[in-house]
Amino acid sequence: MNSGAEIDEESDNRGSMWVLDQKLDQPMDEEAGRLRNMYREKKFSALLLLRLSFQSLGVVYGDLGTSPLYVFYNTFPQGVTDPEDVMGALSLIIYSLTLIPLLKYVFIVCRANDNGQGGTFALYSLLCRHAKIKTIPNQHRTDEELTTYSRSTFHEQSFAAKTRNWLERRPSRKNALLILVLVGTCMVIGDGILTPAISVLSAAGGIKVNHPDVSGKVVVVVAVVVLVGLFSMQHYGTDRVSWLFAPIVLLWFLLIGGIGIYNIWKYDTGVLRAFSPVYVYRYLKRGGKDSWTSLGGVMLCITGTEALFADLGHFPVLAVQIAFTVVVFPSLLLAYSGQAAYLMKNKDHVFDAFYRSIPDSIYWPVFIIATLAAIIASQATISATSSIIKQALALGCFPRVKVIHTSKNFLGQIYIPDINWILMILCIAVTAGFENQSQIGNAYGTAVVIVMLATTALMVLIMILVWHCHWLLVLLFTGLSLIVECTYFSAVLFKIDQGGWVPLVIAAAFLLIMYVWHYGTVKRYEFEMHSRVSMAWILGLGPSLGLVRVPGIGLVYTELASGVPRIFSHFITNLPAMHSVVVFVCVKYLPVYMVPEEERFLVKRIGPKNFHMFRCVARYGYKDLHKKDDDFERKLFDSIFLFVRLESMMEGCSDSDEYSIYGQQTEKSRDALLSKYAKTAISDVDLTISSMDSIVPGKSPSSRPNSLTMSSGQEGNRTETDELEFLNRCRDAGVVHILGNTVVRASRESRFYKKITVDYLYAFLRKICRENSAIFNVPHESLLNVGQIFYV
């Protein structure tokens, strides 16, 4: 075959794949870009670090900061009988805050971020890069050369290697790990429902404290009105008002800390003795089962900790750590100690301890700030829920839904209409259905502790595979985490019938949806993979493909990053004509947080030049947004045109069929290269051409040439010009988007539960989710759907 042809099979490494690196403007203002670049370089001035720490208060700590509104009420729903119980509960709160948010999350878990991104799926993506545990096997070795595809290596005889091999050995272990991640994700979605409910209802409860004649239903109505307003405003985004979040939350922390100091001084300074763990032992021994079940209320003091990790991507870890240790942690300790001091003298006021302990002179200002803080906490949780669903969508674990980018400056701010309204309906149903904080608190506690257990399990693998920790350190971390979290989990089990069933039902529903969708996605991909058309069959058809080639470009969308999809053979078998140029387009999501624009596209030729067939693989990370505009199509054609120019430049440059132009070139050398040979106005393009074995910037084997030596230059330029003119004429003639509509059906011999899963549940999800044509912004007048059915 000539130098422009390639056998497009995974097993054949001859020919070339070309990576087109284009520097494109990011939708981000100069300030955000500067902060992002400084974050990547891990270089911060002291002043900038303090500024970022201040801003993190409004985004990261709103949920954790509003816990004092409802902790003591949920700990003692039947009232306080012995003041010593208050001391025991306070001691439990102090050590819970110290062990879980401070030591585990802020100083350990936050370090397990994926290039700054946090959350359950970020941990899973990090693991997928260190072990072959991804259930959709669509990765290629070229993906590992991405600048964001960072991973560590280890010796094959190490404990990490043995753990990796154990995970990779059986598909059941990969599925078990995926289910664990999905369970954690579903519980985070449950947090997105329960956090607004309990936070806003608790804040609105301040009306009843100052006006005892107001009924509880009025408080519920006020909370519902606030929630409807909150969810209705989501489509505007928070870009315009987010600058207010940090000052409000900082003021909130200063207020609760100051009120705590006032109450300790006024009522009982003896509560400071609760820093002794002896009071924990006395409390549990004295109360027996009642004290044990009250742990379900105590653990609400650490709610919001998982949201802390999920929202980590907005700020550097050091800024989050400074904000917690300097402001959040001491303020919370003072707030809980102050409430305990007040309850030591007023044990009958446990049901509304927070508002009762506020001095009368500042009651209404604190009430207003508390309501605003509750709204901010709810907003942070809703944003985290949308973000994690976007991640699940990118990794093939959630049905296709509409994702709207609400900010021109920050890519992380998104709005998902369908999910937003579902969350609102469920949140209102929980608020109006339970009416009291106790049952909502029980539900909230169940969701939080299960998420923490899932994070602990993932962290064990992170410590082994990524950090290569000694097994003693892994054992110590696992033991301490499980002792605390399993203790709380055993306590919430006693309250399953008192509201704790709510997050379980919500999580079960979302888990069913996510797993069924993922199962169908995997089966559909496996079918595409196993039914690929052989290259020999394509070559046997000849340049005309056995039919009439009409002017125009056909974009055939496929999930395959290699090989010719069956949809193509199905199409040309049933229709007598095909476009003059065929481009197989694969949009692929990788287990990385983002793919730089300059490394987005992989382009390669399929077959000889006179076939005019190309493949373009567009790679995205789970935080990337596939925007709905004409930009994608323009970039795709620019990549193909540039590929043709470079291919012509490379012909005859060496005796080998493998040649490289490496991306580690200076701007000057790249510009000179383009100016001399490409004669194009694209001056900000990075170019990488390499073999299948070494894609993107890498070390050059000594046998390969370091520079270009053109031979038959005039002939090559003429060939290049002819093909470019041909491509432009075909583009002007029209572009048709060909999408496969693969229908999955259960085979006749399948068991009944598989038939229900595939023929009803998955089919229903496919019917209600967005079409691929909407995802890719394909105009209806140029859309062609090709249907096919396969049985699993």
Short characterization:
The chain contains 29 helices and 10 strands. With 792 residues, the chain is α/β, with parallel strands linked by helices.
How would you describe this protein?
By secondary structure, the protein is of the alpha/beta class. The chain is 56% helix and 9% strand. The chain contains 29 helices and ten strands. The strands form two sheets. An eight-stranded mixed sheet has the order 8-1-6-7-5-4-9-10, sandwiched between helices. The chain has a two-stranded antiparallel sheet with strand order 2-3. A hairpin with a 7-residue loop joins strand 6 and strand 7. The chain is elongated and about 90 Å long. 45% of the residues are buried. The N terminus is likely disordered. It is a multi-pass membrane protein. It holds the Pfam family K_trans_C. GO terms for molecular function: potassium ion transmembrane transporter activity. Potassium transporter.
